[in-house]
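Lab notes, practical 5.
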Amino acid sequence: MINRVILTLLLGLSMFCQTTGQNPDEEWRKLDSIAMELPGYLADSSLKYALKALTLAKQTKNDRQLAITYLHLGMLSNELNDFNVAIRYLNQGLFHANNDTTKAAAYTELGRAYDDSSRPDSAIYFILKGLEIHEKFGPEYEAKSLRKLAFSYRSIYEYEKSLGHFKLGLEKEKQAGLDSYIKRSYMNIGLLFQDLKQFDSAIHYYNKSYELIASDDLRGNAVYNNNMATVYIKLGKINKAIPYAEKNLKWKIKLGDQQSLTLAYNILSDIYLQLGDYQKAKDYGLAALQVIDTFPVSRTKLNAHRHLLDAKIMLRDTMDALKLLNSTLAIKNELFEKEKAEAFAEMTVQYDSKKKEYENQLLRTAALADGNTINNQYAIILAGSIVLVLMIALILIVVDRSKQNRIAHIKMTEQKEEIEAQRNQLEEINRTKDRFFGIISHDLRGPVNAFQGLSALTRMYLEQGDKDQIPELIDRMDQSSNRLATLLDNLLNWALAQQGSFPYSPESFKLDSPLNEVLGIFVSSAKAKGITIEDRTDHNTYLYADVNGFKTILRNLLNNAIKYSKKEDSITITGALAGDKYYLRIKDTGAGMNEDQLIHLFDLEKNASMPGTAGEKGSGLGLVLCKELIDLNNGEITVESELNKGTIFTVWFPKG
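Output from the prediction step:
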C-alpha cells in the first residue's frame, strides 16, 4: 500500500512538473487531470491540485474552466465528507456553467451532498433538477438520477416513491444495457419490499439479482446471501436462513471487510440463539467479538456484545456474563454519548444550512423579480385579449338569436351560473382543505421541533450540571406550549366553524373571569420578550356572547400583539360602553402593518403570515377565526395600524 501511494504521488509530481512553461489552458488541463485521476484514498492531495487549477482558471477568467473546477472541488469535498464546503463549490460551478452537461453534474453532486448530510428535501430538489437535463441525454443518464432520487426517498421512509423511482430507473438501465446496475437495482427493489414487509416480493427480486451476479463477484454474492438470510429470519423461517447465513460468512471471509464479517457472525449468533443452540451462538458471538473488539464503538460492536452476553446467560456462565455485562453497558453508554453529540452537531449544521438556503432564496427571488414581472404583464395582456374576443363573439351570438332562443339561452345561463357557483364553492372547499392540511403539516412542526430541541438541551445541561440555563429553557418551553395550544385550539374551532357546528351558547357574563384567565396564559410569553401588558378595563362590565368564543378571540388578539412586539414594547387593553355595545381595544407599540397586509388580514387564502419579532411562525388562521367568531356573536372588529408604530384592534360585543 505504501509503495502504491509513493508511486502515485511521484506520478502526480512528474505530471505537475511537466506543466511548467506551458500555456495557461494546457497547464489548467494538466492540473485538473491530476486532481481527478489520483485514487480516492488521496483525496486530500487531489484537492490541492484542484485548488491550483482554480487559481489558474480565475486568472484567465475562463467560465468553462471555472465551472468544471468548482464542480470537481465539490465532488472531492463530497469524498472528504465536507458537505457544506462541497455545496458552496457546486453552487459556484452552477453560476459559471454554460452547458447542460456541467449543470446536470453539479445538480447531481448537490443532491449527493444534501443527501449525505441528512437534508433529503434539498437533495430531492437538486436531483430532480439534474433529472430534467439528463432526460435529454438518454436512458443511461436518466437511470443515474432516478437511482439517486430513489435512495433519497428511501432515506425519509417514503418507500412507495422510492420503489417507483427504482423501477423506472431499472427500465432505463435495461434500455441502456447496464447489466452491472440492473443487478443492483433488483437488489435495492428487494430491500424496499423487505422494508414494506412484503417478503415474498423481496425474495423474488433478490433471486432476479442473483441470476446476474457472477460466480467470482465477492461483494455481490455476500450481499445476496446476507439479504436472503435476513428476510427468512424476519419470516420466522430460521432453518431456511441458516444455509444463506453460512454462505454469507464464507463470502465475507474472502472479501476481508472486518465490519461486514462481524455482521455475518452476528447473524449466525442470532439464529442459534433463536434455535436454542446456545453453544453455537456463543462460538459465533466470540468470533464476532474477536474481529470487532479493537474497532471504535458502533451498533455492530454493541450487537456482538449483546449476542454473546445472551448466550453466556443461557449457558449459566455467570462470572463471564457479569464481566461482559459491564463492558456491554460501557459500550452502550459510549454509543449513546456519541450519537447524542452527532445529533446535536447535525441539528446545528441543518440550522445553519436552512438559514443560508433562505438567504440564497431571497437573493434568487430578488434577481428574478424583474423578469417575472415582464412575463406576468405579457400573460395578463394576452389573457385579457382572449377574454375580450370571447365576449364580443358571445354578444354577436346572443343578438342573432330569436326570442325563443334568447329565452332558452337565459335558462341555460341560469343553469350555468348555478353550476358555476357550485364549482366555485367546491373549489373554495378544496382550497380550505388544502390550507387546513398545510397548517397541520407545516405549522405544527415549529412548536413540536422546538420541544424536541429544548428537551435535548435540557437533558444535556442537566447531565453537565449546568442548572443556570434551565429557567430560560423552561420559559422557552412555556412559549412553545402556548403557541402549540393556541394553534390546536384554532384548528379545532375553525374546523367546527367551517362545518357550521361550532358550539355557540351566548350568555350574559362578567368580564373579569375570562379576561384574567386569558391574561394569565400570556404572562410568561410577555415576560420572556420583555413586553409589558397593562389592563385598564372595568372588570365588573357584563357582556352577552359565547364565553368560549370570547376567550378564543381575546387569546388570538393578545397572542398576535405579543408576537409582533419587541423588547420594551407595551400592550394596553382598554374598554368602554358605546350605546348597546361594549368595546375592547388592544393596542400595541410593535411592528405594525402596511396597507396591503391590512386589506388581506382576514382572508385565509391571501393572508401571508409574517414571522414575529423573535422569529415566531404563524398560519394566519387566528385572525380569520376571530372574525368568524365575532360575526357569530353579533359583534364587529376594526383594525388601525401603522408600520413600525403599532396596531390597534377594536372589538365590539353586545352588552350584557
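Observations recorded by the TA: The two ends are 91 Å apart (CA to CA). The beta strands are 506-510, 532-535, 542-546, 570-578, 581-588, 636-642, 646-654.
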